[in-house]
Amino acid sequence: MKSKLNLDPKVIDSARSCAGRIAESMQIFIDRHTTVSTERTVLRLLGVDGVDDVDTPLPNVVVDAIKDGGGLPRGAAYWIGNAMIQTGLDPQAIAEKMAAGELDIMKLTMASKEDAEAKILPIVNKALEKIKAQTAKREDYLATIGEGRKPYLYVIVATGNIYEDVVQAQAAARQGADIIAVIRTTAQSLLDYVPYGPTTEGFGGTYATQENFRLMRKALDEVGEEVGRYIRLCNYSSGLCMPEIAAMGAIERLDVMLNDALYGILFRDINMQRTLIDQYFSRVIIGYCGTIFNSGEDNYLTTDDAYEAAHTVLASQFINEQFAVLANIKEEQMGLGHAFEMDPDLENGFLYELAQAIMAREIFPKAPLKYMPPTKYMTGNIFKGHIQDALFNMIAVWSGQSLQLLGMLTEAIHTPHLQDRMLSIENAKYIFNNARAIGEEVEYKQDGIMQKRAQFVLAEAEKLLHEIEAEGLFSTIEKGKFGGVKRPKDGGKGLAGVCVKDDSYFNPFIPFMLGGEK
Amino acid sequence: MKSKLNLDPKVIDSARSCAGRIAESMQIFIDRHTTVSTERTVLRLLGVDGVDDVDTPLPNVVVDAIKDGGGLPRGAAYWIGNAMIQTGLDPQAIAEKMAAGELDIMKLTMASKEDAEAKILPIVNKALEKIKAQTAKREDYLATIGEGRKPYLYVIVATGNIYEDVVQAQAAARQGADIIAVIRTTAQSLLDYVPYGPTTEGFGGTYATQENFRLMRKALDEVGEEVGRYIRLCNYSSGLCMPEIAAMGAIERLDVMLNDALYGILFRDINMQRTLIDQYFSRVIIGYCGTIFNSGEDNYLTTDDAYEAAHTVLASQFINEQFAVLANIKEEQMGLGHAFEMDPDLENGFLYELAQAIMAREIFPKAPLKYMPPTKYMTGNIFKGHIQDALFNMIAVWSGQSLQLLGMLTEAIHTPHLQDRMLSIENAKYIFNNARAIGEEVEYKQDGIMQKRAQFVLAEAEKLLHEIEAEGLFSTIEKGKFGGVKRPKDGGKGLAGVCVKDDSYFNPFIPFMLGGEK
Amino acid sequence: MGSHTTHSACETTTVDLTNVKPYGDTMNDGMMQLSFTLPVPYGEEANEAAKILARKMGLDEPAVVFSKDMVGFTYFVLYGKCQHTVDYSTIKVTKVEVDVMDRLECEKYITENIKRPVVIVGACSGTDAHTVGIDAIMNMKGFHEHFGLERYHGIEAVNMGSQVPNEVLIAKAIEVNADAILVSQIVTQKDVHIANLTNLAELMEAEGIRDKVILICGGPRISHELAQELGYDAGFGAHTYAEDVASFILTEIVKRKMV
Amino acid sequence: MGSHTTHSACETTTVDLTNVKPYGDTMNDGMMQLSFTLPVPYGEEANEAAKILARKMGLDEPAVVFSKDMVGFTYFVLYGKCQHTVDYSTIKVTKVEVDVMDRLECEKYITENIKRPVVIVGACSGTDAHTVGIDAIMNMKGFHEHFGLERYHGIEAVNMGSQVPNEVLIAKAIEVNADAILVSQIVTQKDVHIANLTNLAELMEAEGIRDKVILICGGPRISHELAQELGYDAGFGAHTYAEDVASFILTEIVKRKMV
Ligand code: B12
Ligand code: B12
Ligand SMILES: Cc1ncc(COP(=O)(O)O)c(C=O)c1O
Ligand SMILES: Cc1ncc(COP(=O)(O)O)c(C=O)c1O
């Protein structure tokens, strides 16, 4: 299809292959390392769950013991496989005995890597079956009750109380929402463990726990059957427990996951090495289970200017795409992020934004782009805010966005109230329907404001990618090229959880999940 | 300039010349008749003003006396001219004496038509000078303090109290309004006289009186100087006193006048003969004093469907244009009306509306089109309403509308509150600025939804005009072709005020105002 | 939270219908949104005035989230937590009590129970020129795919249109021997509708026909309660269809033995 | 009106600042707009509940102009006439009392009155990760064309960024011998900011440095009044610029003889 913005395919290809090289060179670093969270993820997939008597999750108990025993470079899978051989117990029983102080797996006789690997294989297969069953169930729902039309209406719930969240989520689905994202409580991303059980006391969001996932999944399946539309569930595979949450999500059939190492680095001050390593395993899981991931480029525009920094968003999308390719994620699962954050006082801001949104659509034609609403320039003037959201919705339907995170008129005030969500759904539905075919109907003036804007942003992004390739991703981040935020390679949270693998390290899931050797 | 909608110029020409023939044939009827209101207008222009001791306006006192005396076919100008000759008094003194019961001008010796005409000539000239001075003052303001950018932001005040209206109008101007329309009280259009003096008790609007015009004009000049923008004043030359109000407006420097016989016929059940005759003189005055008139086609869409009846709006615009041409009104003063009244639930309604708005712009390239906001589908849901208004504003800036009557989020609830007006101005300013160049930037798909829609509406309008030409305008209205409302030729209000002129009838203003003989 | 403490699982509170409060995102949080203008100059003091007012209204923790200078006036958007409660369980609303029949059922009802044509006269009376509402009820075409009374076999619907003086309306009703009068009132500014509706009811009393005719009013700001206060038999608000009115009239005719 | 009566010319009422009421389109009409949700099923009874609630809040003639079924909940838009009044004339707001100097004046003030570098440490403390606000105040670039404190000659601005534990913030202040601590709090859900700000003030007391440092908080939901209640020297809300804070700090330093 011809580019309506007259984008040069050669520039696109050049940017894309440059991003590919950036991702590959980072992958070399990633492949050499593992992290505590990555290892806890292996345990979770092997069925280790629950908490000890001081509420420490058992995956943490086990990995902490392995780490303390100096065994992390070999990977948790080995130690569990070995413990199974030596004790005859299953992984959960091993973890429980460790929590009870009755077993020290670091002190057992050590079998060979091959024997340990063989020992856990049946359990690995069982885990994969479980995930496949969930994926099949999603497909079954989609085939039977169907789904909403794109752009999907994506709203958040954030009461802090999972039971209250359920009420609000079901209400939202009845009003027309297609995707429910349960926002996490403030600062969960900085916890180096995943809390356990149903929770009722978050700040500005609700804890991501496996039980909470389960409760919400059930509620959405129920309401989805009621309204005759599969309702997708979204959460955050992000922060210090990135891959663990990906695994929990795979098991509980989450459909969408916010997942982006750069977000953690820039906005949560998480160490870049740690989170890039974690991101890899999390994406492998996400790819495997058919979840859509959302990257966090939209956030750059909350700290940097949407007009000035537009090319950083595009550059980051290219990189995120290539990281996803390496994790064997299909384009149809790549929810690359961007956002409507132009200053509303900018003359012709609507045209610039429209040009950029169409550009993203043309460059990533099959990706389920995630489009974020105005947040930065929202104020307590809810009436003005509601029309900022209306223009955002107009651009979304025009440029064919896929995941439309609905703007709330109360964005600058509080996390959404029941009525805010209803009004925002009404807003989107009205505009999507009323302007449905606009994208097909209009064309853009040759060398007009819009064509030039898109061509310029693409050119700048390509330039930035070449700079990053020359400089290396780590050092680019250190220089503050994304979101205007600088982070040191050895700073931030979680670096202590990183270690170099030894030669007999193995992660039993990755090869299967990639569908081949890796 | 090439039509972006691929409209066929031949169809446009055919429609236009057909409308021209319709207007001309109606003009033959008009030229043979006069009305009480037309004659009162002559008196007002001759300086007759004030009320008698039971508050009857003196123009009514005089014209009623002439009518009762059987002198209406000869026209008020003759009787006043004659009375001046016979009494040596000026028109105002004559009227006052008549009101006091001290003079019966029908019983005086009768001079010749030529002498009467000559006698009042100096007074006619004085009246014309007064009006020209006002027109010059407007031009001076525009040249010195300037004006707002198009689309002009046009808001209404409607408190019922002229002093309260002044407060609100000034506030609106400070918030950015370019045009203030003082809505008339309910049912003033049915009064066969114009109330006198400042008024404070209207229902859903304020009486149109000359003193109210003066008070508001002064307030707007003041605030215009304060904000550095000439603020236009709008009122209604409409209803049973159509030409009288046009004269008052000319004298008090109103800038915009709602003026459309068809509105009165269809929506106020005013007799069609009466109001078409009245309309002629009112338009001659309007043309002369540089006022913009607004026609009322928008109203059709409140009783008929905006999608189905779009061609009736266009047909009526063509007719209104031709009536204006006959009254010597320049295209730059033709505020032809249309409205954003598509059902918001209509799929692609935005595209149809956009096509129609651009079509109007292309067909009447220099006319200051008046674009009316959503009213019919507005509800008590003010949040939804605010975004309906946002889409309306989007189409306005896109299609280059001129007079943008701002939608109010509270349209379905009450006449505007101070804050409603502020929010609606904010809405329009935001969108006009943010999407300023969109009309130049986009083009429309060959034979797409939009092109086809506009071509279809034009073709239907042309067809309707040919039907009207064949059938006659009176009979077309009798059949309910406009707004779905049927009105009989001899029904409705005000027919008693119509009479056939006799041979020595003269209206001393029309020839001068047309700038030649008529 | 302690090192790894998670939270206790207490379910959401359920609503107490005897003590209902507004709901923002938690039961009984009382959250409400307000907007209004005060005739005071913009500034901190204005915000304070808005908050004081909100507190007097029973709002806890009022927050002015937006205020705007309107030169001598200040506009506010305010959120607060309403402390008043309502006993929903005891609310009784006076509603038009009738089982609504659809058009075909109405027609059958006339054939079976009334056995003569039913005559209904309607108008938008006084100075009101808004006919769309009364047309929606009376004219053939109806509204939202619900046919109007004109379409009903067995009903003679006389729609007099807009701006009909009450005297003229009554004269017509007498002339055609109407079973019911429908009067539409859309403009409510300064309570013109109250004055006009009261006048109509009084004129009917004066003419001595009040008891012989079913008198009904309607419009977006009309409620059955208001109608009854004004001495009408019924009042219909927004979203009324012809069948709602027809059902009421027909059952009244039978009830009152006007057959 | 009689046959041709016109109206008397009474001017608009002017505002009585001791008895201020909301203004819709007429002085003292009291008009207000509300929107809220009640946890009751949609219907006439729900509308009635909304009106009862509005009356309890002191609104006359409450009108539910829109209501929407939210399945078990009902959403309302309501207008009514507020009967409460506010005495605007006696309102006193606790404001940061300082004559704001611009950047150059601040710099001059330091040279003339303080004669040493002023050290200011800032952070977004606790779990709050919103740095845009504190960056706007502290970083070179500033905000809306107002440079930040880093740019001021004579000021040493140390911006510690986001999610800084209070302990770490205090340690830094002690280390650099800070004159002032700036703490930003944006997230206010469930009053996290109150807990965190209180904790910081207490820790400073415990460390014995509370009196030696000017302690300031800021954020969109922070007012000077709240700040003072929490034991802070000043609080700054939305639309603050670096010069507002700098002016306060510098004059305080002189006032407290910290020079
Ligand atoms: C269309 C319209 C007009 C058209 C009317 C055309 C016509 N022939 O009807 C025109 C353009 C002529 C017009 C003029 C004016 N209008 Co007007 N108009 C409207 C508008 C946009 C829509 C009304 C409508 O058609 N609704 C659709 C119908 C189907 O709904 P409905 O009337 O509620 O009827 C339903 C029910 O209420 C019920 N019902 C109604 N009547 C009856 C009767 C019976 C017996 C029963 C059983 C049921 C029933 O059943 C109907 C179907 O469900 C409203 C704003 C709005 N969005 O509501 C303003 C509005 C009603 N108009 C208003 C005003 C002030 C005027 C003017 C007075 C303005 C002026 N000063 O110039 C003029 C003059 C008219 C006059 N004197 O009456 C105000 C009224 C404010 C108020 N509450 O008092 C409104 C609310 C706009 C506003 N915000 O200012 N208007
Ligand atoms: C940008 C943004 C983010 C960015 C922050 C990036 C960054 N590095 O700062 C990102 C995307 C990371 C983010 C994340 C979250 N956010 Co956020 N975010 C916003 C947003 C859109 C804008 C805030 C902003 O930058 N304002 C612009 C600055 C310049 O204004 P300001 O902060 O008010 O600062 C001015 C004054 O207040 C004052 N000031 C501020 N601090 C100080 C300090 C001192 C000493 C002084 C003197 C003055 C001063 O001066 C400044 C200049 O004038 C707001 C919504 C909105 N439109 O307000 C939500 C918002 C603040 N976020 C919110 C939430 C809940 C979150 C999350 C917790 C959501 C979640 N669960 O995931 C997360 C986690 C963050 C955390 N734990 O803190 C809520 C807070 C609700 C509440 N009242 O509690 C808001 C209101 C959105 C919402 N409706 O839900 N967010
Ligand atoms: C990729 C990504 N992860 C996580 C988050 C949420 O942040 P946190 O859970 O760290 O508060 C966001 C917020 O937009 C995001 O974009
Ligand atoms: C041409 C015209 N005249 C008059 C009016 C106002 O109506 P009235 O003054 O008759 O109430 C309108 C309303 O839109 C109109 O379009």
Molecular structure report:
The complex is a heterotetramer, with 2 copies of chain A (518 residues) and 2 copies of chain C (259 residues). Chain A has 518 residues and is an alpha/beta fold. Helices cover 53% and strands 8% of the residues of chain A. Chain A has helices at residues 9-31, 36-45, 58-68, 76-87, 91-99, 113-144, 162-175, 210-227, 242-251, 261-268, 272-289, 300-303, 310-326, 349-363, 382-399, 418-434, 438-441, 449-471, 473-478, 509-514; strands spanning 33-35, 152-157, 179-182, 232-236, 256-258, 292-294, 334-335, 337-339, 370-372, 403-405, 442-444, 498-500. Chain A has a 9-stranded parallel beta sheet. A two-stranded antiparallel ribbon of chain A has the order 1-12. In chain A, helix 14 links the parallel strand 8 and strand 9 (370-372). In chain A, helix 9 (242-251) runs parallel beside helix 11. Chain A is globular and about 75 Å long. The model of chain A has no long low-confidence stretch (mean pLDDT 96). Chain C has 259 residues and is of the alpha/beta class. Chain C has 2 domains: 3-88, Defensin A-like (2-Layer Sandwich); 103-255, 3-Layer(aba) Sandwich (Rossmann fold). Chain C is 31% helix and 20% strand. In chain C, the strands form 2 sheets. Chain C has a 5-stranded parallel beta sheet with strand order 5-4-6-7-8, with helices on both faces. Chain C has a 3-stranded antiparallel beta sheet with strand order 1-3-2, covered by helices on one side. In chain C, helix 5 links the parallel strand 6 and strand 7. The N and C termini of chain C lie far apart (77 Å). The C-D interface holds C 15, 17, 20-24, 27, 31-40, 44-49, 52-53, 56-59, 63, 73, 82, 84-86, 88, 91, 93, 95, 221 and D 15, 17, 20-24, 27, 31-40, 44-49, 52-53, 56-59, 63, 73, 82, 84-86, 88, 91, 93, 95, 221. Strand 1 (31-38) of chain C pairs antiparallel with strand 1 (31-38) of chain D, so a sheet runs across the interface.
